[in-house]
Amino acid sequence: MMKPWRLWGIRTQILVFYLVASLFIVGAMGLALFFSTTRIVSQEVAKTTATAIDKSGRQLEMYIDQLKGLSDLLAESPQVHRYFDQSGTDYLTGDERRDIERMIQGMLNTNPEIASIILIGAKGQLITNEQNLEMHYSGDIQDQEWYQEALGSTMPILTSARMQEFSMDKDNWVISLGRELTDEKKKHLGVLRIDLKYDAIESILKDMNLGQEGYSYILNQSQRVVYHPNPEYFSQEEKRLELIDMLEMEGNELSREYKLTHRYDLNNSDWVLVGVASLDGVKRMEAEIMIVLVVLGSVLLLAAFGSSAIYASSVARPIRQLEKAMEEVEKGSLATEVSVVGSAEIASLSTHFLSMLDRIQELMNEIRSKEQFLRASELKTLYSQINPHFLYNTLDTIVWLAEFGNTERVISVSKAMARFFRLSLRGGSETTTVRDELDHVRQYLFIQKERYQDKLSYEIQAEDGLMDISIPKIFLQPLVENAIYHGIRKMPGGGMIRITARKGEKDELFLSVEDNGGGFEDMEKGKDPLRLGGVGLKNVEERIRLYYGEDYGLSIANRPGQGVTIILRLKTKLPVA
User: Fold this and answer.
1) Which residue of 4, 300, 306, 528 is 20 to 30 Å from 291, comparing CA positions?
2) Is 483 helix (H, G, I), strand (E, B) or coil?
3) Beta pairing class for 456-462 and 495-503
4) Are 325 and 353 in contact (CB under 8 A)?
5) Residues whose CB falls within 8 Å of the CB of residue 289, separated by 6 or more in sequence, listed in order
6) Contact between residue 493 and residue 473 where contact means Cβ atoms under 8 Å apart
7) Sign, Cα dihedral of 71, 74, 75, 77
8) How far apart are the first and last CA of the chain?
9) Do the beta carbons of residue 322 and residue 344 sit within 8 Å?
10) Are 475 and 540 spatial neighbours (Cβ–Cβ below 8 Å)?
11) Residue 475 burial (CB < 10 Å; 0-12/13-18/19+)?
12) Residue 500 above 90 pLDDT?
């Protein structure tokens, strides 16, 4: 089965294939440019994001070092050691306690980001700047979770003790730095806690440009959330797990949500700072690049369409000219001039086409000569079929009339026979007029009437304006002969032959021969009526088609027991031989 696209015109095929190729090339180049550009931009954004996060991480390291310095002042203070080194519940005097409180207050004054400083002894002693702070423990204080986490630790952690006092208001949040208090002999004395205001961390991290939807967060070694701008990540486990999954992503990896992550491990703590940048700029730039590529691609496609249209027309135009020339040849005009300018292949095709026309013209001339010879041969064959029998029967009729002494009838029949043969010969011409053709068949019927007497009657009618129309000669006589020998002769009584000439539509000429004989009985059995009518009918049919074409010929209306009507369909203008 032929593919549908092969039914398209060559111009359409060239246009479609050219546009498809152009679309593929432009699309491939556009995608390559798009992905290479966005990759470069993404790499630059990743570097910028990593630099910003590393910078903030180093600031955090400096800040934690500063806090550790403050904690060292308290943890290594002799007053603190003496105060918490007491056994039982007998503490030092109030002056010692006030000295420690003044030290704490001085630190708070010079460091406003510190919310509170708490000193907790191993036996429950408490010194802090917070008012009305009450801590209730069950069992031994050293078994408390917050206490155990601070033992041996100098790193910032978020303990359970402080989380009990958290609210969802970030103004009340704190991040605690806890460390163990020991004397010179490493004897455990208690725990020091420095509570930092939450916004102290925020102030360091807020200057990072991570995009509209970007954020940063901090996890500790236990993968607990130390810092996140959204409070839900402190209380909802599934959200904490999301942060852990994001932490495990490959560094500078671009996620499905257009998020870029970068981690920074703080050297002086177990904190991990993670920056999550939303690549809003990359997305905007991708959109802008896409718009530019679409506009540029559209311009290139329009240029490709215009150039392909010009090229396709230059190829299709000469082929179309050849096609029109072939259509003219198909209509019968071999004198077609073809002047095709195009590629070498098309010029060669044009040359071969003209050579073919010349050869066709030669063959047509040969066929025409052979047809003329064939017509003459057929006409001679027809004469040879008609003349012997008819001449013999006519002479027999004349002898019979002469024996009875009917001189006038002998003369009439002789004159009719002479005119009949004169019209048949007609100077060797193959054509005649309707007038002479009707006269020819009239002479034939007159002679047959003399032979059959009352057994035969005939009428000849013709419309006005038809007499001078040229037609091939001896069309009617074989039909009349067929009507007599296959119809009238077999009738017990008299028979009638009616001959008419009339004009049809579209320059058509109809000659009909009608009889009221018995008709063709075998025609009802499916036999060819041309064969039933003998050589004469078939000969006339072939000659009509030879002169006028396959659309013209004989039509037979058979009426068994009532007669036959044979109609010749001709043209009012005889085609030029």
Assistant:
1) 306
2) helix
3) parallel
4) yes
5) 33, 34, 37, 38
6) no
7) positive
8) 43
9) no
10) yes
11) buried
12) yes
Which one has a higher pLDDT value, 392 or 484? Answer: 484
User: Would you state the CATH architecture of domain 363-571?
Assistant: 2-Layer Sandwich (3.30)
Q: Taking 60 as the threshold, does the pLDDT of residue 100 lie above it? A: yes
> What's the CATH class of domain 13-281?
alpha beta
* Strands of the sheet with 495-503, listed across from one edge: 456-462, 495-503, 508-515, 563-571, 553-559
CA 321/CA 346 separation, integer angstroms: 11
Per-residue pLDDT tens over the stretch 412-454: 889 988 888 888 877 667 889 999 999 999 999 998 888 888 8
The per-residue DSSP string of 46-109 comes to HHHHHHHHHHHHHHHHHHHHHHHHHHHHHHT-HHHHHHHT--TT----HHHHHHHHHHHHHHHH
CB 119 within 8 A of CB 126: yes
Q: For the segment 76-98, what is each residue's pLDDT rounded down to a tens digit?
A: 888 888 888 874 445 556 777 88
* Rounded average pLDDT over 264-289: 79
Nearest to 421 by CA among 377, 449, 399, 390: 390
> What's the burial of 15, exposed, middle or buried (CB within 10 Å: 0-12/13-18/19+)?
buried
Per domain, the residue ranges of the chain are: 13-281, 363-571
Q: How many helices (H) and strands (E) does the chain have?
A: 15, 15
Tokens 């012997």: give the residue. 388
Strand partners, 197: 174
**Measured distance CA(192)–CA(119) in Å, rounded:** 5
Single out the residue of 235, 281, 236 nearest to residue 258, CA to CA: 281
299, 306 in Cβ contact below 8 A? no
Shortest CA distance to 543 belongs to which of 455, 464, 478, 458? 478
Spatial CB neighbours of 516, under 8 Å, sequence gap ≥ 6: 487, 491, 495, 496, 562, 563
| Whole-number Å distance between alpha carbons of 142 and 123 | 9
Residue 416 Cα to chain centre, angstroms: 81
**Looking at the predicted structure, is the pLDDT value of residue 530 above 70?**
no
Q: What is the average per-residue pLDDT within 535-547?
A: 81
In terms of DSSP H, where are the helices of 164-214? 198-205
The larger pLDDT score, comparing residue 56 to residue 140, is at 56
